[in-house]
Amino acid sequence: MNRFLLLLLLACASVHAYGAKLNVSRPQGISLEISTSPDYVRVQVPTELLERRAYAEVSKAVRQFKHPVVRSMLLQGFSFGRGDTTHEIAIQIAVHVQHILGKSDCTVRIRMLLPLMSLANPRAVIAGSKANCDVGGDIAMLTDLSAKLSQSISDGIRNTNTSLPAVEMFKEPALAPLGSMVLANGDICLDSAGRDNLCLRLVWPTGVLDSALNAIASLAPAGHQPVDAAALAPLLTKLEEIAPYKDSVRYPGFRYPAKRSGHDYDDGDMSIFGGLLCSVGVEVACELVRRAQRESTGQFWRSPDNIGNWSYENQFSGDQFTGVINYLLRKGDTAALSRYLEFLSLQRHYLPDPVLRFGIASKSCLQDREFTCVLQGEEWFWLNFLANRHGLTQLVPADERDPAKKYGHSWDLLPYRAAFAEANYELHLVGVQIWTLQKAGITSPAIRQAAAIMASRQPLNPFYLLLHLGKDQRVANVVSQKCTTNLSNNEDEWAWERNESKQAWKNSMRWDCIFVIRALQ
């Protein structure tokens, strides 16, 4: 049976593929295990998302009583019941209520049902609730407190359709055939932080997955003709004149690309965008990424002025890492790579913490409360690729030199990620990986199919068209339509990482347009 795992980018996760050998996954991710005989997926949903809904309904119900003060509310338990056509989720919450007449400690149990469903419209039905309260003081006069609380909660949530984590991509016309699934079974499982997740097993008919991916890829726009790069030159020149720069505080006299909103500048994501711009020859962007590394430690940060910034919950992330890789591919900075590998070799951490020790992994930063700096298969692929190119293999930890074996890493997973990632920044990150592979001279049928799937899903995104068609006039036509030189007070979007429906190009930071146009030269 041919199996592999994907970290699916739905409402709350970043894309990451991993294999059976993986011991660490990104928390809050929704993972899929896919088999081709028969086709099925195992979906992992953080129970926290369901618990929050129940918690909110209990809070609302308690507020219906006169003069209550909820002193505390604790999620005590979560259980899962299997059925042939419907699964039951039971959530137990402890509520301590202080009333003008006394105090009460209640235990509330809420039942949620997951019926057979389509991923185009996944719903959970909250079927009812029950509360048991121990009362004290004059509040004992309210002998029916438990019944009233139960009824209040039930009235508020009984038979209410409750959305599960967004699976908006299955509403896209290109992905509609994948939306019909049957829930087969499920269980409680743990994520990398040791937290409860709800694992569901959903089934397709055999062969549907690969056939659907081929069909989606076939819908991608066809090429038009070789690009007329000269015709784009005036637009490029004007964009480069008006694109926003931030005056560096750390490096007086140095100005680098950044987002701008009014008089405020945002450089929190400039390692990824700077790396992409560097890859098409924007030298100031290369310098941006070079200066984002603290030479004394080797650590890369989000931008030059963010070096030493501990106000970010996540000092770095996997997307910023891709920008660093693009810089290293473009500039061949052996010294920077050497410093970085030495830094990473010292960042071996127990996950989620030294006490639980659910797993061990390297991190690319010192602070990441959402585990965004954990290095996995893709990161180690690129670090090994560059280390081999620069003769620095000895600086890669011995147990990280074969990411295919350790993590199940394979670029053959890209078409699935291109199909399942939500059409916003998550899908853009898949595109960045394809771009990076192309710049490194790496190609395969799977990589090309992934690019076609992205162009099929968002056919008016010039970056996705560029990945699929290369230097084609169709790409130039689309980017010319979206990239204007009109003055704007907000230049705060890298438009290609947004769903086309958001029309983010209207607030383009200009550098996104410069990136695509330079790539067409």
Write the layout of secondary structure elements.
Blueprint: E1 3-8, E2 16-18, E3 30-36, E4 39-46, H1 47-62, E5 69-81, E6 86-99, E7 102-115, E8 123-137, H2 145-157, E9 160-163, E10 182-190, E11 196-203, H3 208-218, H4 229-242, E12 245-247, E13 255-257, E14 259-261, E15 264-266, H5 270-279, H6 283-291, H7 318-331, H8 334-345, E16 348-351, E17 359-362, H9 377-390, H10 403-407, H11 414-420, H12 425-439, H13 445-457, H14 462-469, H15 473-482, E18 490-491, H16 511-519
Antiparallel strand pairs: 1-2, 1-3, 3-4, 4-11, 5-6, 6-7, 7-8, 8-9, 10-11, 12-13, 14-15, 14-18, 16-17
Strand order of the largest sheet: 2-1-3-4-11-10
Number of domains: 3
Q: Provide the residue-averaged pLDDT.
A: 80
Number of strands: 18
Uncertain regions: pLDDT < 50 for 5+ in a row? Answer: 1-38
Helix/sheet category: alpha+beta
Overall geometry = globular
Mind summarizing the main beta sheet?
6 strands, antiparallel
From the N-terminal CA to the C-terminal CA, the straight-line distance is 46 Å
The number of helical elements comes to 16
Strand content: 15-25%
Estimated helix fraction: 25-40%
Radius of gyration: 26 Å
Assembly form of the protein? single chain
